[in-house]
Amino acid sequence: MSAGHGHGHGVSAAADRKLLSGALALIVGFMIAEVIVGLAAGSLALVTDAAHMLTDAIAIALALLAIRLAAKPPAGGFTYGFKRVEILSAQANGTTLLLLAVYFVYEAVSRLIHPPEVKGALVLITGVVGIVVNLFATWLISKANRSSLNVEGAFQHILNDLFAFVATAIAGLVVLLTGFARADAIAAFVVAVLMLKAGVSLVRDSGRIFLEAAPIAIDPQSLGAELCAVEGVVEVHDLHVWEITSGEPAASAHVLVAEGLDCHQIRIRIEEVLAERHHLTHSTLQVDHATASQGPEHCSDSHGVVHRAVTGAGPAPDPASPHH
């Protein structure tokens, strides 16, 4: 039985913290300025947009907290440490985006029915400044490790805020030039669709990790057949592939090899296949000799599909059939 380990990302957690902190400072600074301008101008639209930026600030703060917790070493009952706090953060960010999308749709419908008076010049100026601020914040977070769903969640918040400011600036220009107040509501619909798309993606991907589904790039059925093709392997069952956190896949399996062969050498070969072909460097394998006396009931409570080598153990079973 063996475990191989190898975790790493192109960007360090310390670099991620620095980049996210810079983006957070920008967002909070502009948010405070926007509240002051909105109150001075009597603009509810600007104050509402500042509230939207508050959710961005919360998203980045959650991401920073998750990075700090994920860096803590395993302790007590948390044998993986707190790595999945990052996924909790990603799920919270995705859910927030979905809720905001629903809110913007509601507000857009209300404004289409009863368009309020919109100060086009003020909206246009604020939108342009917001674009500049969010472009810089987006650039900062884009340099962080976006393979982490946690960082990606914060990035999607800022990116959607950038789109919102672009739509706001365009709407402000249209209102200023034509007096068409409903342009503001149409812009809100565009932003809501983009937020919905990003939110669904984050909730779906983080949900797959919570449910311990296999990474999208790995098909467990094909992987089982591939491991059975390793010389000397008779059967593979209890094959599990999941992600500890985003970008950190893991695998475990019970492998039976032909009698008289070296279990350890075959295990090493299987680990090489997992690491080199599938980047599965965190693997736990139980390797035993298959004996005629064991029969098909080698494990009394196996999970999932049993994979058998085509030669040496009879015909391979239907991939959809259970072990028992």
From TrEMBL:
Entries under Pfam families matching the protein: Cation_efflux, ZT_dimer
Record localization: Membrane
SUPFAM superfamilies: Cation efflux protein cytoplasmic domain-like (SSF160240), Cation efflux protein transmembrane domain-like (SSF161111)
Transmembrane segments: 23-47, 53-71, 92-109, 121-141, 162-180, 186-203
Domain Cation efflux protein cytoplasmic positions: 225-289
Record keywords, A-Z: Ion transport, Membrane, Transmembrane, Transmembrane helix, Transport
Membrane topology: Multi-pass membrane protein
Highest rank taxon of the organism: Bacteria
Residue stretches making up the Cation efflux protein transmembrane domain: 23-210
PANTHER family tied to this protein: CATION EFFLUX PROTEIN/ ZINC TRANSPORTER (PTHR11562), RE54080P-RELATED (PTHR11562:SF17)
Family annotation (NCBIfam families): CDF
Similarity field: Belongs to the cation diffusion facilitator (CDF) transporter (TC 2.A.4) family. SLC30A subfamily.
Official protein name in the record: Cobalt-zinc-cadmium efflux system protein
